[in-house]
Specification:
The protein is 33% helix and 22% strand. It has ten helices and 15 strands. It has two domains: 145 residues, NAD(P)-binding Rossmann-like Domain (Rossmann fold); 167 residues, Dihydrodipicolinate Reductase, domain 2 (2-Layer Sandwich). By secondary structure, it is of the alpha/beta class. The radius of gyration is 20 Å and the shape is globular. Helix 5 runs antiparallel to helix 10. Strands 14-13-12-11-7-10-9-8-15 form a nine-stranded mixed sheet. The chain binds nicotinamide-adenine-dinucleotide (NAD). This is Gfo/Idh/MocA family oxidoreductase. GO terms for molecular function: nucleotide binding; oxidoreductase activity.
């Protein structure tokens, strides 16, 4: 298994043929042929753990390139500049990044900072006339998300959310099967999303910066997953919160929430979001004609899964490489992924998060 994993992890976008990832209107299929179209020139804001992963993945992109940095830590900027050959004129800090408006060499900014900073930073980038790719959750509630969407629209820039799973080949295959009716009438989705969080001083456990707890960070995968696996929007939620460590998980920072969602077709979802359990990364979809089991379902991969027809065999490709090439194509050519990655998609998840928090607090069934 180890050697298979190593082998899969070494595969890159340029060395294998990639299955079709987009809806039939405009198909995306990577090839080994040299790419000669436009390159999306991206600045990363927030050079932390995920920013580092995205930058590395972009080394294998054909259509996107890291060309700029926005950081509050000069020592990181020095290191990243050397590693990625980034000119000083493309480097900014959190005070002066509005000046990016005068920089014709940057097309888009990828916001990869703590959740509660996303809204203000996205709005500033949009007002500087650059496209925004923003990490999930795009904001800390639906009101924020909508303001971000409206501002980007008014500024005539694109707003995309870092939903990397919407480009992941096994996930895309399952969505295609669902659209083709291969599972029959869908009845049930289960999403388990969680990990055991460490350092109690990190921003993820500080409501001012995180906007919440596990739900904002990892539970959102089960919400988004329920929507793309079932292909419907929920009409109600119920939720129950459990807190075993009120010192680590302070007021407003959720440790564990179980939640249920009901859909117009009658399908139901049962999900778990937690910062207090490990090995939780599993999706299960059940229909009248078949099923899908994915585990891991949303980690960095390789994703593994099987349906009633057998194992999912699509290749593992670094998620963020596919995502960034796909987003470049979306920005330049309006080529859409099979499930949207735009700001409106982000707002849909935030509306559900708002409702789940309300349901957990009141104990009531909340309509959407
Ligand atoms: P991180 O702590 O590793 O990095 C955050 C970065 O933001 C750091 O470089 C930090 O210096 C910077 N920062 C700027 N202002 C800050 C402030 N006031 N307080 C604290 N840090 C500040 O976190 P991360 O894991 O990189 O997460 C960043 C974002 O990316 C989050 O929104 C998270 O949800 C998202 N994320 C997405 C995925 C994914 O798979 N899509 C994975 C991990 C994280």
């Amino acid at each position: 298994m180890g050697s298979r994993r190593n082998f899969l992890e070494k595969l890159t976008i340029s060395t294998i043929s990639i299955p079709i990832l987009y809806s039939p209107t405009k198909l995306f299929a990577a090839s080994t042929a040299p790419y000669e179209g436009p390159i999306l020139r991206v600045a990363i804001m927030g050079l932390g753990s995920y920013g580092t992963r995205v930058a590395k993945a972009m080394e294998s992109c054909k259509r996107a390139k890291l060309v700029g940095l926005i950081s509050g830590t000069p020592s990181k900027v020095v290191k990243w500049r050397a590693k990625y050959d980034i000119p000083e004129k493309n480097c900014y800090n959190y005070d002066n990044f509005d000046n990016i408006k005068d920089n014709p060499d940057i097309d888009a900014v990828y916001v990869i900072t703590p959740n509660a900073l996303h809204k203000e930073q996205t709005i500033r980038v949009a007002k500087a006339g650059k496209h925004v790719i923003c990490e999930k959750p795009m904001g800390i509630n639906a009101k924020e998300g909508q303001e971000m969407v409206d501002t980007c629209k008014a500024a005539n820039v694109k707003l995309l959310v870092g939903y990397r799973m919407h480009y992941e080949p096994k996930t895309v295959e399952v969505i295609k099967m669902r659209k083709a009716g291969e599972f029959g009438k869908l009845k049930f989705f289960q999403g388990l999303s969680g990990f055991t969080i460490g350092d109690p001083t990190q921003w993820r456990l500080n409501k001012e910066l995180s906007g919440g707890g596990a739900m904002m960070d990892i539970g959102i995968y089960s919400i988004n997953g329920a929507r793309y696996m079932l292909g419907e929007e929920p009409i109600w939620v119920t939720a129950q919160e459990t807190k075993t460590d009120p010192i680590k998980f302070k007021e407003g920072v959720d440790e564990t929430i179980q939640f249920q969602m009901g859909f117009p077709s009658g399908a139901v979802a049962s999900c778990l979001s937690t910062y207090a359990m490990s090995h939780l990364d599993r999706f299960f979809l059940n229909g009248e004609k078949g099923f899908v089991e994915m585990r891991p379902s949303t980690g960095y991969g390789p994703i593994k899964g099987r349906t009633h027809k057998g194992e999912l065999t699509q290749p593992h490709i670094t998620h963020q490489t596919l995502q960034m090439d796909g987003m470049a194509q979306l920005i330049f050519e309006e080529v859409q992924p099979i499930v949207p990655v735009d700001g409106e998609e982000g707002v849909k998840d935030l509306k559900i998060i708002d409702a789940i928090y309300k349901a957990a607090k009141t104990g009531e069934k909340v309509s959407l």
